[in-house]
Write a structure and sequence with these properties.
Layout lengths: L1 E5 L3 H13 L3 E5 L10 H6 L7 E4 L7 E4 L1 H12 L7 H31 L5 H24 L9 H10 L13 H11 L2 H8 L8 H7 L4 H9 L8
Helix pairs in contact: 1-3, 1-6, 1-8, 4-5, 4-6, 5-7
The protein binds glutathione.
Glutathione (GSH) binds next to helix 1, helix 3 and helix 4.
Length: about 240
């Protein structure tokens, strides 16, 4: 069985979308990151960065395969199934470059925009402007790419699956799809896919409440290590 350590946030949902696209059986192991479950020692053995998603595939003949980081998980599933990633040549690197663009750019920048616009405990106009503008620039990059081909890498691939859950909350990032018509066309095409709809049904993002804030924000090496050593999930950092 494949176990997906999951919370219904954009980085989790890209993996449920891929699993549904591939038609692989899997089991959800819910990790409530708003209550500190990401610091449980048994989870940290699988995901030492204390973040979801992580995946353990126990169906492999030699030994279970354990992977953390959403981009690595998408790559693993694509290679395991031979689907949604071209086998070689320029086409493969076209998909991989957009996958890396998402995990290194769109995801972190949109995440910061969410933080400063919706969750920060104080209003920081410079932070709001910086990340809203950077998201806007990235939407422009996406729009140009999608103006040249139907899907990011020509064929539908893990690159599209990685980006889509990060575009769903575009309003929270201060963006308007009307300004990016090729993104809007692609967004509608993604949302019309049955497997994408099924992947998203795995949960709806919960906004962090007051308790969640104490677990998700303000982490330092010291606070994480205190967590690992002492308290079970649910305690305040
Ligand atoms: N680079 C990581 C980012 C994963 C990530 O940020 N996960 C968030 C939820 S979307 C999380 O688990 N946060 C828990 C925490 O920060 O303690 C990936 O792509 O998998």
């Amino acid at each position: 069985m494949i176990d997906l350590y999951f919370y219904p946030s954009p980085n989790g949902l890209k993996v449920t979308i891929m699993l549904e696209e591939c038609g692989l059986p899997y089991r959800i192991q819910f990790v409530d990151i708003t209550r500190g479950a990401q610091f449980a020692p048994e989870f940290l053995k699988i995901s030492p960065n204390n973040k979801i998603p992580a995946l353990v595939d126990s169906t492999q003949p030699q030994a279970p395969v354990s992977v953390f980081e959403s981009g690595a998980i998408l790559l693993y599933l694509a290679e395991r199934t031979g689907q949604y990633l071209p086998a070689g040549g320029q086409a493969r690197y076209r998909a991989l470059q957009w996958l890396f663009w998402q995990v290194g750019g769109l995801g972190p920048m949109a995440g910061q925009a969410h933080h400063f616009r919706a969750f920060a405990s104080e209003q920081v106009p410079y932070g709001i402007r910086r990340y809203t503008d950077e998201c806007n620039r990235l939407y422009g990059v996406l729009n140009r790419a999608l103006g040249e081909s139907e899907w990011l890498a020509g064929e539908y691939s893990i690159a599209d699956m990685a980006c889509y859950p990060w575009i769903i909350p575009y309003e929270r990032q201060g963006q308007r799809l009307e300004d990016f018509p090729h993104v809007a066309r692609w967004f509608a095409a993604m949302g019309a896919r049955g497997a994408v709809q099924k992947g998203l049904e795995r949960g709806h993002e919960k906004a962090a409440d007051a308790v969640g804030h104490t677990f998700l924000y303000g982490q330092t090496a010291a606070s994480v290590s205190a967590h690992n050593n002492n308290e079970p999930s649910g305690d305040k950092q």
